[in-house]
Amino acid sequence: MAHYDLHTDQLKDMAPRLRAGDTVSLTGTVYTARDAAHKKIVAAMDAGEKLPFDLNGAAIYYAGPTPAKPGQVIGSIGPTTSGRMDPFAPRLLDAGLACMIGKGVRSKAVEEAMARCGAVYMVAIGGAGAAKAASIKNVEVIAYDELGCESVKRLTVENFSAIVSQDCMGGNLYREGMEKYKR
């Protein structure tokens, strides 16, 4: 296991090298999107419409932040359950998505798409949304404002910490943890 300080522009090249258990501090641009936004993004793909952001090399954080209090950039921004994005994730991965950040296990279809595309899945610690907010330096709603907290947002992050949970080579902390526990 290793630690990497990465700029998000490096994710496309680095994702295939990251392994389950590695820790990462991200600086750069990360987009938020949850299931309602994913459904709209895939519908836009199907219709041949312009997407809210370029998926190629992008990182999506499965989060719906709370409103910012006075003097804050953003409110609490903890991860949401990633499995809700599983019906959509393979399409986004095939379109170039390099990194997904959330919590919980992923489906076999997502694992296969990660292997095919050289992408990575990272987890952020659930329940630590207020602490995560400290790494967000700017936030801008860029699409689907009608979805409220689930709108697509462009975050500028600095030292956003995450753990590689599943890599494109089949490494999977969830599976490995369960196997160790069973012994």
Task: Please tell me about this protein's structure.
The protein has a five-stranded mixed β-barrel with strand order 2-3-4-5-7. 41% of the residues are buried. It starts with a strand and ends with a helix. It has 183 residues and is of the alpha/beta class. It is built from six helices and seven strands.
Ordered list of secondary-structure elements with their pairings:
Blueprint: E1 3-7, H1 11-14, E2 23-32, H2 35-47, E3 59-61, H3 89-94, E4 99-102, H4 108-117, E5 120-123, H5 129-133, E6 136-143, E7 152-166, H6 173-182
Parallel strand pairs: 1-2, 2-3, 3-4, 4-5
Antiparallel strand pairs: 2-7, 5-7, 6-7
What's this, in brief?
It contains six helices and seven strands, in the order E-H-E-H-E-H-E-H-E-H-E-E-H. The protein has 183 residues and is α/β, with parallel strands linked by helices.
Salient structural properties:
183 residues, alpha/beta, five-stranded mixed beta barrel, 27% strand, globular
Q: Helical element count?
A: 6
Radius of gyration, taken over Cα atoms and rounded to an integer in Å = 15 Å
Outline:
globular
Strand order of the largest sheet: 2-3-4-5-7
Share of helix, binned: 25-40%
Task: Detail the poorly predicted runs.
Answer: none
Let me know the largest β-sheet: 5 strands, mixed, barrel
Task: Please give the alpha-carbon distance between the first and last residues.
Answer: 22 Å
Number of strands: 7
Topology order in helix (H) and strand (E) letters: EHEHEHEHEHEEH
| Secondary-structure-derived class | alpha/beta
Percent of sequence in beta strands: 25-35%
| Arithmetic mean of pLDDT | 94
